[in-house]
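Hi U.,

Before I forget, here's the chain from the pilot set. I'm dumping it here mostly so it's searchable later in email.
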Amino acid sequence: MKPESESRDPSAVHPGLILTIACIAQFMVILDVSVVNVAMPTIRSALHFAETDLQWVVSAYTVTFAGFLMLGGRAGDLLGRKRMFLAGIALFSLASLLGAMADSSGLLVGARALQGVGAAIVAPATLAIITTTFAEGPKRNRALGIWGMMSAIGGSSGVFLGGVLTDGLSWRWILLINVPIGAALVVGAWRVIGRDRGPRHHQTFDFAGALTITLGLIAIVLGIVSIDQHGWTSPQVLGGLGGGLILVALFVLIESRWAREPLVPMSIFSSRTLVGANVVMLLMGSSMFALWFFLSLYLQQVLGLSPLEAGLGFLPMTGALALVSTRTPKVIARLGTRNTLTIGLGLIAISAAMFTQVSADGSYAVDALAPMVFAAVGLGLTFVTATIAAVAGVPAHEAGLASGLVNTSRQMGGAIGLAILTSVAASLTRGYLVDHPGVGALNPEALTYGYRGAFMLAVVFAVFALAANLTLLRKAPAPVAPPLSSEL
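Structure:
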């Protein structure tokens, strides 16, 4: 007798509605990575944050998001994707409400950490639901193209939406708006997503594996985000990175030798395509997260744009992302995975190289607009293609695992890249100030000097991603392109 999750096909119910629910949920959890950036000065004044503690409004979310992704993805496989999706959305919405009502810095940071746990459950569940709803081929690729578009736009539009809500209403609405959206998603998911209980009767759960990988990833991310504040050789950084790597090594040992039902079966890494796609996603995240972050700072701190003006400046990038992401499956069908990634990663490298030429007395139209469009096209091609490659050929009972892996690669890449590039930019800016006595810390020339160095390192990450693509992903014949009128 077939398990319930396999005997009932959710795609036979409402595939379009299922895709819509999954994409809105993914947009919401990715948006919350960056939506608080422009509100940071307002939050600092309202809740009396110390300057050194303010980073945790962002870091508390990214640390738990990245740390719990593997556990969240596998839990969907074992306990049911619908069940975990509903639980994740409920937790995320409740944490958003707590954060919006926070009257102290500690409560806000705690709420953001809970949001990250909810996001770590939701993100892999959305991708797994799409993967199991649509059969592998053109229809799934089109669905993943839309999902990828929402993910990419969620990251790039955070500055815009954060600026609109902060300037027009209050910083609290950045979090509060998640509550009605989350409630609507819970109702919709309850009604249209097919019920599943996981493909196996899990009499045992790999608690040791879950504990070591979750603590290991959290320790690594904590070490990384502490670099800018404490320095590379500090006990906080070395202890976090060293302890995290030891825990990850222990996790591999547990999964390969001791676990009866491993959280992450090592056999999944036998897919060269999956491994290559995750390496590309890790390095691409290291490059692109930093581009968004430093571009936002450049527009506001150097060019003097307001939060709302900076947000509006990101709209061309968001529009280009939306257009390219939905077209990417057809590009893959004609050119193949590796060629599409080569073009996308090349454009990301070119855009980062263009950003190295920004000037302290520049303008948005001259210094930012063109490289933003190049970055949007490259990101749209790369993100969607790497996601499709990462879940291609994965059996339904491991869809959550593959989804957790690719989401973890993106989040870890973003955390690693942002921490390294922030440290480099701060060091270069400090060096400029030493060489130019009497210049203030917020001098546009000093800031721009640091940003240029960060953009140069982003070029390096993009080139490494391009090399990984050419090395790890085999050149495969392009599949037949679906017709433009093909329905989901």
